[in-house]
Amino acid sequence: MAAAALAVATTTAAYLFGPGAGESPAASKKKTTTASAAAAAACKADPRYPKRQLRGLWIATTTNLDWPSKAGLSQARQKAEYLKILDTAAKRNLNAVFVQVRPASDAIYRSSLEPWSKFLTGTAGKDPGWDPLPFLIDEAHKRNLEFHAWFNPYRAAYESDVSQLPANHPARQHPGWVVKYGGRLYYNPGLPQVREHVVKVVDDVVSRYDIDGVHFDDYFYPYPGEGGQFADKAAFAKYGKGKSLAEWRRDNVNKLVAEVDESVHARKSYVKFGISPFGIWRNKAQDPSGSNTSGMSAYDSIYADALAWIKAGTVDYVMPQLYWPRGFKAADYRELMPWWAGAVKGSGVQLYIGQALYRVGEDQSWSKPGELAAHLTLNRKYPEVKGDVYFSAKNLLANPLGAMDRVVKEFYSRPALLPIMKQLGGHAPAKPAGVKAAGTTLSWTPSQGARGYAVYQVPKSGESCYETDNRNLLAVVTSPSYTAKGAGTYLVTSLDRLQHESKGTSVKVS
Asked: Selecting from 3.60.20.40, 2.60.40.10, 1.10.150.20, 1.10.10.60, what CATH number does the domain 426-509 have?
């Protein structure tokens, strides 16, 4: 991710009261109409409090960037570090985490297909003595954080010597699958066996673990300039079938994306699949459909054609990494975000923006504490933007220049429900029954099919706007109880795992 953010610089010069008793029909009608108009006005969606918005956090395991902080930590220490990240995310009203479970053809979970990651124990293939993934998922769910398993599809190893890898490593068992490039090993995207293996790895996780999403980052073919030419001539000669090399490479990536999409939804229809591509698809100078930018083109340099995935519907969302500030000449946020909004418009593919929290305070261009908040202000003008995801976890903890304090104060003061993806099915559970108050403790009977419950406080005016926005949303909880802050009327709704919402049941606390 960090390398991707720098690519522009290195490639350019870079949401029963009827008529009153005793009143005449005309007076009653006028009063009712006025009341209805007032209610409608009172419940007009307030853009400051979007009902649904994805607020995510990347948690990178590669090179121990975020978690665990270093290899070889005890299980207790690993758990404590992870819970600190989740507690911080929940405190800041985030609602999703994207956790890297496969950094480089290795596993942060018990796998029969790939070896244990060295970022757990310090030694590739060494059993850490526990399977972290059920813990990682369960603790996220307890905090109302959707869990997306993040895979790097093609990175095979950080080493270039196959003999250094564990005996059960796919690259060691199938040396013909890999290409040495820039001192590392990459799987050759042009080989059908490679695509089959990646799909099998993803399906294994989807089938065995209670994840909410499958996520790919921006690493497809290697970024240029790291090791000369990518040596895939033999595969191209065998499988190219009259295409140009560039067309063939893009087709290889498109095939993998389509195959993963089909596999994920065949296994569990509700699991989301999306990708966070490099922020520039193509520049307008290269393609009239491109953005008014002058940085590296993902389409041409790493053969990632996000517009093709959007058009084909082989992703549920895209999350472009827009890691540049407003006014950055080669890749201005004010140019790129609207371009991506236009790219997904009418497609059914959701758009979230990858935000560069890690760059805040890094240099002069990111010296403004309010830059990230300004990005979210701009996003409000484009209904296609359904949320933001921050890179990465350690920077959320560090909060450089207090930038996240500002984002939370201005945009995340209330929780939010997740955006609905209609194509994944699901439906609202029955509304909560048996809602009662004992002192300030609210409780209710669990609704069948409910994964969580939203708790709202009805304002003194009695105008509950819970179906419109989240101005009165207090919390999203996973258990059928909630401790109210004080007297008043509260309203509870049921949510399925995709956060389709039931009608509300109200209760008074005196």
From this structure: 2.60.40.10
